[in-house]
Amino acid sequence: LKDLWKFDLAKEMWTRLHDMPAPARYSFSMHLWNHTYIVAFGGCTKGEKGRMRVVNDLQIYNIIENAWITPRIQESKWPDARCRHGSHLVNLDNGSAEMYLIGGMDSEQKKRKDVWKLLLACVKDPEVSWSRLSDVKVAVHRGFSFGLENKVFLIGGFGQTFRKLKEVSGSGEIVVTHDLRNLPVSERNQFLESDSLAGFGAVYDEVGERLILIGGGNVGGPNSDRKSDKSFGNVSANVKSDSRILCLNHSKDSGQRSEWFWESKRQYEALEPDYKLPNYLHWSAVYVDHSVLLFG
């Protein structure tokens, strides 16, 4: 699809806005820049004979003027076409922003491990430039990335063991220790035995400094008796999905060093008998006013 819609939470009403002036797509990234623009990159479209085609165009939508605009482009390298990539946008104090692009999948359905940074400058007349950073060590797609204290972190996705939280920066990839001991034994063993976790919904609560993760599937593993599942699009995988709700909390020790630890929120999975969280894959989630809005 290429249509754009706005939902007014106060009026509970949908309004259709201007369509994206580019081919319809899916599996692309989209971020809010300085409460003024929406920045979209890449994704999958239909090519010849209905085959999947990936793109690497950058689309910017002006929220105030309800219009799609063409940014000024500085001479720079440009990322190859991809879809299902990880990305995160950091708004800077001067009104500019930096968007990080991590991995993804190309038109040959091969996982990528390159990392790019997009500088979005000049809010009134957007100007963009790309720079390539050091690759992550293992190719990945469908991972989740978030930011904290001017650092970008990557977790989960095909190809990345869930046992590792990774900081991604211009100097390369740093594995960050996180504690699994607070998880129930069955949940902890799933993470230790599986190759990776994908298809989950996730949001980052900046105030509470915690990653909230919902659902998803543990992929593969040496002792797995999971059935083959085709619900990850064109990727064949052995997946066991779960209705889990987990939090990865951030704090600092007495020496101001970061600490990360997991905790299970099983008590929130069935607030009422008729409303237990479904056991689905491919959740999308957003964080609004201390609430998680979940789309299945």
Structural summary, described in words:
The radius of gyration is 19 Å and the shape is globular. The protein has one helix at residues 185-193, and strands at residues 5-8, 13-16, 29-33, 37-46, 52-62, 67-69, 72-73, 86-91, 97-105, 111-121, 127-133, 144-148, 151-155, 165-169, 172-176, 196-198, 201-205, 210-214, 217-219, 228-229, 237-241, 245-252, 258-264, 284-288, 291-295. With 296 residues, the chain is mainly beta. The longest helix has 9 residues, at 185-193. The strands form seven sheets. Strands 7-11-10-9-8 form a five-stranded mixed beta sheet, with no helix packed on it. A four-stranded antiparallel beta sheet has the order 3-4-5-6, with no helix packed on it. It has a four-stranded antiparallel beta sheet with strand order 12-13-14-15, with no helix packed on it. Helix content is 3%, strand content 47%.
List the helices and strands and how they pair.
Blueprint: E1 5-8, E2 13-16, E3 29-33, E4 37-46, E5 52-62, E6 67-69, E7 72-73, E8 86-91, E9 97-105, E10 111-121, E11 127-133, E12 144-148, E13 151-155, E14 165-169, E15 172-176, H1 185-193, E16 196-198, E17 201-205, E18 210-214, E19 217-219, E20 228-229, E21 237-241, E22 245-252, E23 258-264, E24 284-288, E25 291-295
Parallel strand pairs: 7-11
Antiparallel strand pairs: 1-2, 3-4, 4-5, 5-6, 8-9, 9-10, 10-11, 12-13, 13-14, 14-15, 16-19, 17-18, 18-22, 19-21, 20-21, 22-23, 24-25
